[in-house]
């Protein structure tokens, strides 16, 4: 048809327009329009097309030169561009943050505590405090980092938290006495509390179909980070000691800090903060790297000044979601770290039924008695880490089939069931199988929560919602040693009932979540403002939206 039209009149041209649906799928269509002697090449978003000059000097009016008055949102652009080279780069950088700033710094707790216990002759309660102070720092900062990310940008909050952790992580290696390392490790924990915001930034650049799988695969980087930390400890501890281990463990953060300059700010955040040009530039950059076209039309902006406010998590639309998610995250961390502690106790006893008798036979010993970690201990740490891979694979397979809510509920239920089976006096082999199944599913459920939480909250409160949930998880991590270690000395079965009952309640809470996010795009703003955006889109008035104050942008 194009060739035929050109044969009749050379002034005819074909303008290619990218159409898009609300589902995010894009298709190309050819529309014939009367134009000038030159073809119009569309690259990126054209907010305004210049008049086209004809041979006689006349100009085609702008409304004829622009064949569409469509508007689109960031969600539409992300879906139309799809998954490509940009997202692959972002996956590696996000994974580096997860491995260096989270997994390695958390794994170091298992190595540092027994070493200082022996070298500085610390009593048991001071050794336990070294671990607890990191969780206190994470708990106290998670909400703050979420607020900063909602107010000043995801990239800003992430860079500050990484530089904070890097600085105090290196200083920890120079701590002269116990009190100094206690304070410095607490400050390291304060910085680690901002790491979940990397998931917020990551999720906001992912198309809907790839979002769950990509966030779940971040768990692979967790395993890589922990394995690397153990191998580093095997090489460094016998010769250079724990100070060099702390310093060298912080250096990968320096690499991530440098790569942060490549990271763009979230286009969703830019739209919400009124930076339309910056959002368009970011989307055009992604489209260029992926080699994909962008929708034609104007980008809808919905400016919102009040971002990252705690009250927004308790609006009628999100109140129950927030409360249920807090309990789910609490139960995840409470059960996950509890199982890690219980595994050591059960393996030392041989089986569950031997723990009570072993407790009675052990005589009181000095709290300063210590044992250095051996190569066998490091090997056990590696195997424990690798046991989480099956859980990630199972979660990866079911999360887009049965949904986020049912995936979390199933993970909690399997963990609860395995905990009840431990009531039986099983042998060591069966005990190992039950513990590994329980850990696989609770780790998979943890990752499912990381998928669901950024999806359920709108852009204005997404970082804060994830931050508060992460803070509640640290509360569970703080409490679980008193159950897995202190209560275990009194009653093994009561300890198992507590963990099993908690996860059973969490499974019920997962089912009662009011929103299922499977197959749903990320929401740009709150429920009320979302309706205003749809009204603006239906009116086909490009670039005219309303802010919170009701003024036209």
From TrEMBL:
Q: Where is the composition biased (Polar residues)?
A: 542-553
SUPFAM superfamilies given in the database record:
MFS general substrate transporter
Query: Which domain of life does this protein belong to?
Result: Eukaryota
User: What family is this protein classified in?
Assistant: Belongs to the major facilitator superfamily.
| Any one GO cellular component localisation term in the record | synaptic vesicle membrane
Membrane topology per record: Multi-pass membrane protein
The entry's keywords? Cytoplasmic vesicle, Membrane, Synapse, Transmembrane, Transmembrane helix, Transport
Q: Which InterPro entries match?
A: MFS, MFS_dom, MFS_sugar_transport-like, MFS_trans_sf, Sugar_transporter_CS, SVOP-like_MFS_dom
Q: What is this protein called?
A: Synaptic vesicle 2-related protein
One function term, GO molecular function aspect: transmembrane transporter activity
Instruction: List, for all copies, the residue spans of the domain called Major facilitator superfamily (MFS) profile.
Output: 91-518
Q: Which residues cross the membrane?
A: 90-113, 125-148, 160-181, 215-236, 242-263, 317-337, 407-424, 430-452, 464-484, 496-515
User: Which Pfam families does the record associate with it?
Assistant: MFS_1, Sugar_tr
Q: State where the protein is found.
A: Cytoplasmic vesicle, Secretory vesicle, Synaptic vesicle membrane
Q: Where is this region: Disordered?
A: 524-553
Q: CDD domains under this entry?
A: MFS_SVOP
């Amino acid at each position: 048809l194009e060739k035929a039209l050109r044969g009749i009149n050379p002034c005819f041209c074909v303008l290619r327009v990218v159409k898009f649906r609300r589902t995010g799928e894009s298709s190309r269509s050819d529309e014939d329009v009367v134009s000038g002697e030159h073809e119009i090449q569309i690259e990126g978003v054209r907010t305004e097309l210049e008049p086209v000059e004809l041979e006689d000097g006349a100009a085609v009016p702008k409304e004829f030169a622009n064949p569409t008055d469509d508007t689109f949102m960031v969600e539409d652009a992300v879906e139309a561009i799809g998954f490509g080279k940009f997202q692959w780069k972002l996956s590696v950088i996000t994974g580096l943050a997860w491995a260096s700033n989270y997994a390695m710094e958390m794994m170091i707790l298992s190595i540092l505590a027994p070493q200082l216990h022996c070298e500085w002759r610390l009593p048991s309660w001071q050794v336990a405090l070294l671990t607890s102070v990191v969780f206190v720092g994470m708990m106290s900062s998670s909400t703050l980092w979420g607020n900063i990310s909602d107010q000043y940008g995801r990239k800003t909050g992430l860079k500050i938290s990484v530089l904070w952790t890097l600085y105090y992580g290196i200083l920890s290696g120079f701590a002269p006495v116990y009190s100094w390392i206690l304070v410095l490790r607490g400050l390291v924990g304060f910085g680690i509390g901002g790491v979940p915001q990397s998931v917020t930034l990551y999720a906001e650049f992912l198309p809907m179909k790839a979002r769950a799988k990509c966030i779940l695969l971040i768990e692979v980087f967790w395993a890589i980070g922990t394995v690397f930390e153990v191998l580093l400890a095997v090489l460094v501890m016998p010769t250079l000691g724990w100070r060099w281990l702390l310093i060298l463990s912080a250096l990968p953060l320096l690499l991530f800090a440098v790569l942060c300059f490549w990271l763009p700010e979230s286009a969703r955040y830019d739209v919400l903060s009124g930076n339309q040009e910056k959002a368009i530039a970011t989307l055009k950059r992604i489209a260029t790297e992926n080699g994909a076209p962008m929708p034609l039309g104007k980008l809808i902006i919905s400016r919102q000044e009040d971002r990252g406010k705690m009250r927004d998590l308790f609006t009628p639309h999100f109140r129950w979601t927030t409360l249920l998610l807090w309990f789910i995250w609490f139960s995840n961390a409470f059960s996950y770290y509890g199982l890690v502690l219980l595994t050591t106790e059960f393996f030392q006893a041989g089986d569950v039924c031997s723990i009570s008798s072993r407790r009675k036979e052990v005589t009181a010993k000095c709290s300063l008695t210590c044992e250095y970690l051996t190569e066998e201990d490091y090997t056990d740490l590696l195997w424990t880490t690798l046991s989480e891979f099956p859980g990630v694979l199972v979660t990866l397979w079911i999360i887009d089939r049965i949904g986020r809510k049912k995936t979390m509920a199933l993970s909690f239920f399997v963990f609860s069931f395995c905990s009840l089976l431990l009531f039986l006096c099983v042998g060591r082999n069966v005990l190992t199988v039950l513990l590994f199944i329980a850990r696989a599913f609770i780790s998979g459920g943890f990752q499912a929560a990381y998928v669901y939480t950024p999806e359920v909250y709108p852009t204005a409160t997404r970082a804060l919602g994830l931050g508060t949930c992460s803070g509640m998880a640290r509360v569970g991590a703080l409490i679980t040693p008193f159950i897995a270690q202190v209560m275990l000395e009194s009653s093994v079965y009561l300890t198992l009932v507590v963990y099993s009952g908690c996860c059973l309640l969490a499974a019920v809470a997962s089912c009662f979540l009011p929103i299922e996010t499977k197959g749903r795009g990320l929401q740009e703003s709150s429920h009320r403002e979302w309706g205003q955006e749809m009204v603006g889109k239906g009116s086909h008035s490009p670039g005219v939206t309303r802010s919170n104050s009701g003024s036209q942008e």
